[in-house]
Design brief:
Blueprint lengths: L1 E2 L2 E2 L9 H19 L6 H5 L2 E8 L5 E8 L4 E13 L3 E15 L5 E18 L2 E19 L4 E12 L2 E13 L1
Antiparallel strand pairs: 1-2, 3-4, 3-10, 4-5, 5-6, 6-7, 7-8, 8-9, 9-10
């Protein structure tokens, strides 16, 4: 194609330019994340553990969770939640045990993250002459944002995708905690 005195040739290498730019961008981001530890949020380095409560989220109603940072951008977490009720003769209990990991995308105290894991469920009931228990599990994946203050205050908001037997359900979670 000729425009004025310039000739533009759209064959071969010019078509690959968007792919090269995207690849360069991905490599630059990965280099920055993995090889620039001094640029990471100081509060994640100084306070690698945190404890808090998540309302909603991966355990449906609530959960108490603990997270430990393995390095500057990866953290592992575990938690517990129990729902139950009844009287002296009849009762039912459901216990959730979420286990997972988070990968932080930015080296700042306020950072988006991706998360994933599995939730183990144990349910039991005792009603009159009937006594039974069952176990199950489901997986989750989520995208969220965390703010971790220098003093230890922690806030996370996450949109989870709960996945079980081919079903997919989106559920929000709000977490408030303290880093130490």
């Amino acid at each position: 194609m000729v425009i004025g005195r310039q000739v533009f040739n759209f064959s071969g290498r010019e078509k690959d330019m968007p792919k090269r730019i995207a690849l360069s961008l991905v490599v630059s981001i990965l280099f920055f994340i993995f090889f620039q530890p001094s640029a990471f949020a100081q509060s994640r380095l100084e306070y690698p553990g945190d404890f808090g409560i998540e309302i909603g989220g991966k355990s449906i109603a609530y959960s108490f969770t603990y997270q430990r940072m393995l390095n500057h951008h990866i953290g592992v977490e575990g938690g517990i939640s129990a729902l139950g009720g009844g009287d002296s003769d009849d009762n039912a209990t459901v216990i959730f045990f979420p286990l997972g990991a988070k990968a932080y995308l930015l080296p700042k105290n306020g950072s988006p993250f991706i998360t994933g894991g599995i939730v183990f469920i144990n349910a039991s009931f005792d009603s009159g002459p009937f006594d039974d228990s069952a176990s199950s599990s489901y997986t989750y994946a989520g995208l969220g944002f965390e703010y971790r203050a220098e003093g230890g205050f922690l806030f996370r908001g996450t949109a989870y995708g709960l996945i079980s037997d081919g079903s997919f359900f989106i559920w929000p979670g709000l977490h408030v905690g303290y880093a130490f």
